[in-house]
Amino acid sequence: MRGFPRLRTSFVGRARELNTLLRLLGDASKHAGHFVTLTGAPGGGKTRLAIEAALHLTERGVVEDAAFVDLSGLGPGETPRVLDLVGEAADTLTGRNALLLVDNVEQVAEAGEPIAELLDRTPAVCTLATSQRPLGISGEHQFVLPPLAVPGSLASIGDCESVQLFVERARAVAPDFELNESTAAPVAEICRRLDGLPLAIELAAARVKLLPPHALLHRLEDGLELLSGGARDFPARHRTMRAALTWSYQLLDPEEQHVLRCLSVFVEGFHLSAAEAVVGTHSAWLLDCLQALLDTGLLRIEVVEGEARYRVLGTVREFAADLLVERDGEAEAVRQRFADYYLHPGSRRVWPPTRLAPADEQNLRHALESVLVDVVERSRHADDLHQQAMALDGVGALAAAQGDFERARQYYLESARLFGAMSCTSGGGIAMLHLGQALSRTGDRGEAFRILEQAVAQLLSSGENGLAAMGMIELGYLELELPNLDSALQRFTDGLRLALQARELSAVRAGLDGVGRLAARRTQWLLAARLRGAASAVVRPTLRGPALTEVPESDAELVRAALGETQFAAAWAEGRAMRAEQAVDEALAVDLAAVADTPPPKASAAAGADLLSPREREVAVLLAQGHTNRAIAEALVITEWTADSHVRHILSKLKLRSRTQVAAWAVERGLVTPSSP
Length: 677
Hints:
By secondary structure, the protein is of the alpha/beta class. The chain is 56% helix and 6% strand.
């Protein structure tokens, strides 16, 4: 083997990709003259995989000779020099079956066709080229190298290729590094954040001598700057992730660069119609650009139910977003088109209208947040405190909708402060209502109670009776969780009277649900079923804050178990058939001292628990014990972001509204005891 670089590190994973490449290369005697091009994302390991394939073929005797040519030192306009190097290497090959590996052809892409013509004169040679993109010559076989697989769960983390690579490279700088209970979760999350890109993982792993995985993961919030410090014998473009991405970006055509910058606004995947809207064209050239980005590995594609959905790799998106920010006029236009697509669906020039996928929820929220944050900044510059306070309240609502209640609390607090500075009682009351809701979700019940009391007083004094009713009912839920049942009933009924009078249907819905829960606590099962059924028939609330008052239905299983399916269904249907006024009248007449229908059923420990994964059950237990997301993250050695994601999944799966309801659910099933710390 001639000219091959010396390998100083181990080859990790890539068994499937290696087999695919070997199959494409095949038996040199059968495929002489074939031209295979290996493409993929920058730092994706193209050169290393190509060398490994050449080693396999020569060791097995499939090819009798092999040579390596590196074109990274050349550039556009140096085709004659390229042909000299390739020709010299081809002339040195002996035997009937030989392999020529030409590395970094993207530097001299225009030389692809002359290289192919040159090698046509040596039919015994099979050529493997690595390139940022296909060469576009006839007879070319293309293989886009995907990133390494990332862990789906901690159970399989040890078998995951990206994790194996991280551990191998970490041990090169910290020989004592081990994948254990304290390092497994952050390492897995690091590999996921880096999309399985080998170069990014290697650069991150080299930092473990200075930063343990948990701290390293936190530092990734700083972006690409952490991914630097590659080995000195690496090519300059591989010593930092930013350099690798810059190299790749500069090889794109101007149109392709523009499209990549535009696509950086998508938080999650997107459909073709969304790309057309954001780039601002329905022309065929956009398809060519997307194809080029796919070929280079900067863009990934997933086909779901026959429909293509695309996603820009995370590190690539961050890099492209930085470039977009540098172009003020372009950035503003792109963000506006992005917001228009998600916030004004009627303006989409596609037919039939595209149905947003579940993943589009993140894009929708990002669109809303970008608009609101822009309003905040503009109003600050204009010294428009009222506009700024309103926008901050809106951003807080979006943060709460994503389960980020700590961030929501900060926005609501600043909004309330600004409204207070303007002596705007109404706006301040609304912001404080939302702040109290957010605080109740973080478990700070004492402060939530105090803030909600103030909010109700301000809202009543400013005539915002509907929102004041919402605050009263939120207070009722806090009383219910203590549990102060008599006080909770008073709060609910006061709120229901006011809500019905103000026609605040979201508060009516929440109040009926709350009294239904109270009835269930007193084992008045028929009343509980009717009121819960009536609540479910009331229009669902729109996004006006954390939306804490949406009616969950998972704990209806206790009522169903007590009454039996037939009786429960009849009572539920009876409640749904009531008019809101009838249901409120029944709720106002509730007597908690009334005789119970039946003894309460004993909840099965398994009931509902099988909906949760083992990790989610662990999180649920810690929730029940009063842990914050940060404490859960520290206890399970996961990121706070991952802990928050688990909490949101638990609430969604169990259809619960608050952490305290998760605690009640866990106690009822014997997962924890009421006295658990």
